[in-house]
Amino acid sequence: MRLDKFLAQSSVGKRKEVRNYIKEGKVKVDGKVVLIPSLEINEKLDVIQYLDEVVAYTDKVYYMFNKPGGYITAKKDMIHKTVFDFLNDIDIDGLFHVGRLDKDTEGLLLFTNDGEFEHKLMHPTKHVEKTYFFWALGELSEEDMKILEEGVYIKKGTMLTEPAKIKVEKYGLYKDLKDEIHTIINYHDQPVVSGYLTISEGCKHQVKRMLKSVGCHVVYLKRTSIGKLNLDESLEKGEYRLLREIEVESLLENL
User: Fold this and answer.
1) Which amino acids are annotated catalytic?
2) Span 10-29, pLDDT tens digits
3) What angle do CA 53, 55, 57 make, to 5 degrees?
4) Are the beta carbons of 221 and 208 closer than 8 angstroms?
5) Where exactly are the transmembrane stretches of this chain (predicted)?
6) CATH architecture label of 130-226
7) pTM of model > 0.85
8) Regarding the domain delimited by 62-125+228-253, which CATH topology (the fold level of the hierarchy) does it fall under?
9) Is 103 helix (H, G, I), strand (E, B) or coil?
């Protein structure tokens, strides 16, 4: 096994982080400092140390979490509550979030101690699809949807998004749909639209910026799926469960 893969799967850090640790001379193999992340090791026989502490090869765990709005996707924050505040009855040592969701975004978030798993799902070259349900102020015409599906510029004309998929669910006036929308709006005659947007990237605020590019302002956002894994709707907001083996396999299929 590669040294960087061993460290990532042993909860020392994410793949990019452990590569830096190795290059900085913080890792030893059988008592000798090594600087090559791709070094092949025998995970059963070699003694691996990080900062002079022996690294034990740990069992990998994977959790699905239904994130509520209002929480930061981070382990610690000096001001705001974080998603880790919900993980009270499990050992979070070595656990980290896979990707992130904005503070006000709800829905599917994964936790793991497997750095290789995180790398495969989140690396931009893998193009793993992620689907979001949204409510937005504004309207989406057939032309708008075509533009979103073909890719839009979301950063001063310098960044074109990958082709996306969009499906409109409902549209009309806020006053007629307010019971279904999670946000209070002062203008009752404001047109609103809901739907699902599927993207294969993870740029900052991407869904909001894409919809803004065609004149829509997102007021509610929820991630419903990553790859073939759908959010378990039996989970209340703030609840989590272990992923089943078949669910982990479906996420990693063809990656």
Assistant:
1) 102
2) 778 877 889 999 999 999 99
3) 165
4) yes
5) none
6) 2-Layer Sandwich (3.30)
7) no
8) Alpha-Beta Plaits (3.30.70)
9) coil
